[in-house]
Amino acid sequence: MSTLHDSIFLKNLRGEPTDRTPIWVMRQAGRYLPEYMAVRKKLSFNELCRTPEAACEVTMQPIRRFGFDAAILFSDILVPLEPMGAPFHFGDGGPKLQRPIRSEDDIRNLNVTEAREGTGYVAEAIKLIKGELGDKTPLIGFAGSPFTLATYLIEGGGSKNYENLKTMLYSRPELLDELMDKLTDQIIDYLAMQVEAGVDAIQLFDTWGGILHPQDFDKVILPRVRRILDSLADSGVPRIYFLKGNAPFLESVKTLDVEALGMDWTMDLSDGIKKLPNYSLQGNLDPLVLYGDHDQIRSRALEICRKGTEAKGHVFNLGHGILPKAPIAAVETLVETVQGFRR
Ligand code: 1CP
Predict the structure, then answer these.
(1) Of 32, 188, 214, 307, which has the fewest Cβ atoms less than 10 A away?
(2) Closest protein CA for atom 22 of ligand 1
(3) What residues form DSSP beta bridges with 95?
(4) CA atoms within 13 A on the CB side of 281
């Protein structure tokens, strides 16, 4: 049986030497791709996530077009919430929960369910994608962190000030704890299902974890993230924790047993490497650089590649998801530049 052992993406996560820097980008399957928009004309976002053949097709689109060094399962962090009893839909303004989850009763009524029953279509998509990718390109599975999911549940969608969540934190912290524990249990089972279905790495997305004071981060977020990462410690699958805005939290994050940490663009990569010598790092180009001219894209990407050679391992990525208006030609220049760099 051939394996993906030689994948430069997996090697960098494990901290093994490679002659070039692997690249994938967050949200690489999505609205900036005309072939994705063509699929979306026929299927709603929810239908797309729930139809394994279609999810497989859009997962493959950026791999075929750009030759990224890793694929990421096409789905969304909110997908496991529906079987828990929190259905949502996606409009132009992003995700909207049918009803926000705020009261004690709302939280008590959420059910931790068998991932294989509630979201078996995700496991099926993974098996199809693995069949398409073969042993050339590894597949990343993922979940949202309990806190980032809690922001969507409590606010009912995206939010600016997180008023409802913070009101709960500062008036009924035990309620927030209860919600966080349920989400943690659900995510552990959901990720175990993905590993069993065949993903080669997992990423935990904590997009909004950076909105708390460090003390609250330590109390509310860190123990749950630790429990999720530890549940995968013996799986043999490398783990990436992406905490957007992680700079004020590095002392806490450094206590996690995890192979790699995602970095956004607000911290210099060399600074991150100095502070996190024992971790592989992933990042950290500002996604908006793709809106600039191509000399800027090349020089900024190369600077990150050079700095990354000092890390235990380095996977090139944007510091957050690619935006819908990113020009295709800019992504081509980025991939050529990073894949052309030699360490
Ligand atoms: O209209 C459409 O076609 C939907 C647009 C879209 C897409 C392409 C959404 C809605 N989600 C996705 C895919 C997606 N989302 C992936 C697929 C794999 C990939 O290519 O990377 C992943 C990993 C996510 C994860 C996700 N969803 C996060 C965490 C990462 C991040 O970018 O911060 C978050 C916060 C979401 C919520 C979400 N889903 C969709 C949107 C537009 C949003 C963000 C809304 C907001 O800003 O609050």
Answers:
(1) 214
(2) 76
(3) 90
(4) 32
Q: Are the C-beta atoms of residues 109 and 84 closer than 8 Å to each other? A: no
Residue 87 three-state SS: coil
In 137-285, the DSSP E strands lie at 139-144, 201-206, 239-243, 260-262, 280-285
Letter string b/e over residues 189-219, b meaning 16 or more CB atoms within 10 A of that residue's CB: bbbebbbebbbbbbbbbbbbbbbbeeebbee
pLDDT of residue 2: 47
End-to-end CA distance of the chain: 30
CA distance 128 to 62: 16
Tell me the pTM.
0.97
pLDDT at residue 3 greater than cutoff 80: no
Q: For residue range 289-321, what is the model confidence (pLDDT) as tens digits?
A: 999 999 999 999 999 999 999 999 999 999 999
User: Helix, strand or coil for residue 145?
Assistant: coil
Residue 100 CB–ligand 1 contact under 6 Å: no
Domains in the chain, start-ordered, CATH in brackets?
4-340 (3.20.20.210)
Round to whole Å and give the CA distance between 320 and 95: 18
**Residue 70, φ and ψ in degrees, nearest 5:** -150, 150
For residue 9, give both structure tokens: 């993406």
Whether 27 is catalytic is: yes
Which band of pLDDT confidence, cut at 50, 70 and 90, is reported for residue 1? very low
Which residue in this structure is represented by tokens 């900024």?
300
Residue 90 C-alpha to ligand 1 middle, in angstroms?
A: 10
Type of residue at 232: L
The residue type found at 195 is V
